[in-house]
Amino acid sequence: MRLFVYGTLRHGEPGHALLRGAALLGKARTEPEFTLLDLGEYPAIVAGGRTAVAGELYEVDDALLLELDRYEDVPELYLRVERVVGGAPAVIYVLRAEHTRGLPEIASGDWLRRG
Q1: Is the predicted pLDDT of residue 79 greater than 80, yes or no?
Q2: What is the pLDDT of residue 55?
Q3: Average pLDDT value for the chain
Q4: pTM of the entire structure?
Q5: Is residue 108 part of a domain?
Q6: Which residues constitute the domain of residue 16?
Q7: Is 17 helix (H, G, I), strand (E, B) or coil?
Q8: Does a structural domain hold residue 20?
Q9: Dist CA 42 CA 51 (whole Å)
Q10: What are the distances in angstroms from CA 74 to CA 5, 13, 28, 43, 101?
Q11: Residue 75: per-residue pLDDT
């Protein structure tokens, strides 16, 4: 399964070690249909915006995906959705709408360029 990561799971970020053994497929951007939010220590994507979010694609197995679900607090904080990224379906962790109020946007669409 292809997984799109855009925040702390990206290469060089604190959660990246959780992707041990997952094959990096390359850098990618979503379609411009999201908003990227800054939650301080990590970002969140929400559906319904106009931003193409930057990140990386990985090939992951079901066991790793379940481990990442726990890391992302699915389904309480995030939902796992499937969208087209880089021309093919990929799983993306999307913040539940009730947790988005008052959070600042990252207009660039790139967590690594938030500063």
Answers
A1: yes
A2: 97
A3: 95
A4: 0.95
A5: no
A6: 2-100
A7: helix
A8: yes
A9: 17
A10: 15, 20, 23, 15, 19
A11: 96
pLDDT tens-digit readout, 88-111? 999 999 999 899 888 999 999 999
β-pairing, 23-29 with 78-85? Answer: unpaired
Residue-level pLDDT at 29: 96
* Annotated catalytic residue, options 59, 67, 72, 82: 72
Residues 98, 101: Cα–Cα separation, whole Å = 7
Domain CATH code at residue 57: 3.10.490.10
For residues 55 and 5, is the Cβ–Cβ distance under 8 A? Answer: yes
Nearest residue to 57 via CA among 35, 77, 29: 29
Is residue 28 in some structural domain? yes
Distance of CA 108 to the CA centre of its chain: 15
**Rg of the Cα atoms in the chain:** 13
Tokens 């931003």 locate to 51
pLDDT digits 0-9 by tens, 22-44: 999 999 999 999 999 999 999 99
41 in catalytic set: no
The strand pair at 88-95 and 2-5 is best described as parallel
In Å, what is the CA distance from 60 to each residue of 27, 30, 46, 82, 109? 15, 18, 22, 14, 24
